[in-house]
C-alpha cells in the first residue's frame, strides 16, 4: 500500500515538473506540497505497528494504560502468567458496593458505568469484543471518578468473571468468588 502511494506521488512529481514553466507560483506550491506529502507517506509508513492501532468504539470511554499481560497488581508477573487474586473481603468497602450494584443492574452513580471495556492492552483473558464492561469504584474524598474500577465479563448482572484495578487499568486482580 505504501509503495503504491509513493508511486502515485512520484507520478505527480513527474507531471508537475514537466508542466512547470519555472515562474508559475501555483506549480511551485504544488511541488512543495507534493514533496511534503511524499515525505510524510514515507515516514508514517515505516512503522511496523502503525496499522495495529485500535480506535475507540463509539460509546466506550474506558481506556487502558499499557502494560504486560499476566501482571499482578503489584506490577510483577503472577505465577504461570495468571492474574493475582483478591477475595471480596479483601476489597475496599466501596468495591463491595459496586459489585452489589452490578448484580442489581444499577442504578450506578456515574453515567460511564457499564461501558464497554475493550481490553486492548490484553491484561485480562482474551474474549470477543463486548464481553467486558467497566464500573467505577467510588474513592472517598475524590472530586472525580478516581482510579479504581471493577471490570466484569459475561452477561450483565453477573459477577463471576470480575477484576479489580486500583491504578486505572494498569494492573488487575481477579475477584475470587
Automatic annotation (TrEMBL):
Instruction: Keywords in alphabetical order, please.
Output: Hydrolase, Nuclease
Q: Which Gene3D superfamilies has this protein been placed in? A: Microbial ribonucleases
Against CDD domains, the record matches this protein to: RNase_Sa
Taxonomic superkingdom: Bacteria
The molecular function terms in GO held by this entry are: hydrolase activity; RNA binding; RNA endonuclease activity
Coiled-coil annotation reads: none
Q: Which residues form the signal peptide?
A: none
Q: Which organism is it from?
A: Paraburkholderia ultramafica
Q: List the protein's name.
A: Uncharacterized protein
Q: Write out the ranges of the annotated region (Disordered).
A: 53-77
Amino acid at each position: 500500500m505504501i509503495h503504491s502511494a509513493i508511486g502515485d506521488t512520484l507520478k505527480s512529481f513527474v507531471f508537475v515538473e514537466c508542466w512547470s514553466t519555472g515562474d508559475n507560483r501555483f506549480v511551485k506550491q504544488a511541488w512543495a506540497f507534493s514533496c511534503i506529502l511524499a515525505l510524510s507517506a514515507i515516514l508514517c509508513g515505516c512503522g511496523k505497528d502503525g496499522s495495529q492501532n485500535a480506535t475507540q468504539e463509539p460509546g466506550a470511554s474506558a481506556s487502558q494504560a499499557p502494560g504486560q499481560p499476566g501482571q499482578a497488581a503489584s506490577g510483577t508477573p503472577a505465577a504461570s502468567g495468571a492474574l493475582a487474586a483478591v477475595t471480596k473481603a479483601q476489597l475496599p468497602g466501596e468495591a463491595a458496593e459496586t459489585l452489589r450494584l452490578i448484580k442489581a443492574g444499577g442504578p450506578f452513580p456515574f453515567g460511564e458505568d457499564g461501558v464497554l471495556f475493550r481490553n486492548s492492552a490484553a491484561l485480562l483473558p482474551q474474549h470477543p469484543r463486548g464481553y467486558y464492561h467497566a464500573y467505577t469504584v467510588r474513592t472517598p474524598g475524590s472530586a472525580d471518578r478516581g482510579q479504581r474500577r471493577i471490570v466484569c465479563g459475561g452477561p450483565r448482572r453477573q459477577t463471576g468473571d470480575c477484576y479489580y484495578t486500583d491504578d486505572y487499568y494498569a494492573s488487575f486482580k481477579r475477584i475470587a468468588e
